Every structure is written in C-alpha cells, then in structure tokens.
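Late entry, magnesium ion complex.
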Amino acid sequence: MLSVRGISKRFGTTMALDDVSLDVADETVAILGPSGCGKSTLLRVIAGLEQPDSGRVLWDDTDITDTPVHLRDFGLMFQTFALFPHRTVGQNVAFGLEMDDVPAPERQRRVREALEWVGMADMADRKIDGLSGGEKQRVALARTLSPRPRLVMLDEPLGSLDRLIRDRLLHEIRQLLHETTTPAIYVTHDHDEARSVAGRIALMRGGRIIQQGTWSELTTDPADEWVERFLGI
Ligand code: ADP
Ligand code: MG
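Prediction complete; structure with ligand written out below:
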C-alpha cells in the first residue's frame, strides 16, 4: 500500500505541493483538480522523478522517498505518451521489459498478456505510425502494465482523444484496473471521468488536497462553494 505523508514541493515562488497526504490501497483513487493544481507534480514525486522538499513516500511502511525511479516498481503513463513510431506495437510494449532484463521467452509472454488486456492481441506486428489515437493510447497502456508494476499511475490518459473514444476507453481502463487488481492513481481535471473510474476521489486545489471521499460523500457534503461548483452540483 502506498502512503504519501506531508509532501511539499516548491518551484521558485510556486508552491506546487503543500503538505499533501494520501493513501492508496488495493483500489483506484482519482486525483481530481483544475490545471496547475499540482496533480502531475504529485505523481512525479511518487514515481521518484521529482524529489520533494519535505515529506515522505512509503510503500508498505518502507520509506522509498530516496529510492531511484527504476527500483520502485511503479508504472507511470504520462499525458503525452512517447511511443517509438518506427517500432511495432509489440516492440513498444516490450520496452520496459527489456529495461528490466526480462528474458526473451518471458518477455514475449508478458507482451502478449498486456496486449490481450488492452484488446490489441492481433496487432503486435503493426507499426505505431498509422494507428489511431485510441489505439496508440492502448499501446501506451499495455506498455505501462506489461512489467506488472505494483502501482499504476495514469496522468490524464484520455486528454487528447475525442469524446466517443474517451468514453469507451474510460470504461475499458476501469475494467482493466479492476481485473488486474493493481492499486492505481488516475489523474484528471474532469469530474465525470474521476467519478466513473475511481471509488475514491482526492480533490486538489492550489497544491493541497482539500477533500477526499467517494463521489456521493463529496457531493453530499462539499467542503465549500468552490468544490460544489467544481463538481458541477
Ligand atoms: P497539474 O498537473 O495539476 O496541471 P502541475 O503539477 O503540472 O499541475 O503544476 C503545478 C504547478 O507547478 C504549476 O503552477 C506549474 O506551473 C508548476 N510547475 C510544475 N513543474 C514545474 C517545473 N519543473 N518548474 C517550474 N514550475 C513547475
Ligand atoms: Mg498535469
């Protein structure tokens, strides 16, 4: 289980994270908040890509604040996913496994497994160029999942897709996270997305988590007028 304890992070005069604490057990938690509120910075601190000024990151009570990125065993999928355009779908998904020195036969098995998870088992030999936006997003997701990380973090994964594909992928991602039973953090600025993908929502504003709870808890008892407006109630 992930525990984030009192994390603060400043960039110059910007307080990107201000005493943020969050627990994630075997569940999907959404981090919901407007652009610039610190969502990506929080994921980057959890992933180890950014060092906090203060606070700790724990996994099952082990302090991992100073553990290097590649030893955390976390998967992070960015807003803008960087796939290798000239490689095949399968080669892209194999990338993280190669980095981890997973032997070839096991690698092939895991690539197949991850492509099945995202419904692209028959497209392993296709080039990235020529895939649709939704298909690319599925490949990026498979690449994040193939090393079987102990925590999955998705940073606005549907941001660049059009409405119809968003709805379908959102549904699939929710199913997938549920089936793989991997603890997950789903970052979004869209309350509908947060509501459909996650059981629990952590609402962020100005570098702070201002309220946490299920959708019905948040909407029944919003912390203030801003929350009410932001949730569209
Ligand atoms: P979000 O993901 O919620 O849109 P971010 O975490 O990207 O927000 O950014 C939070 C705040 O920190 C913003 O004001 C942003 O401009 C600032 N920020 C983020 N990363 C950096 C950086 N590397 N250098 C300077 N400012 C940054
Ligand atoms: Mg962001």
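The mean pLDDT is 93. Will revisit in the morning.
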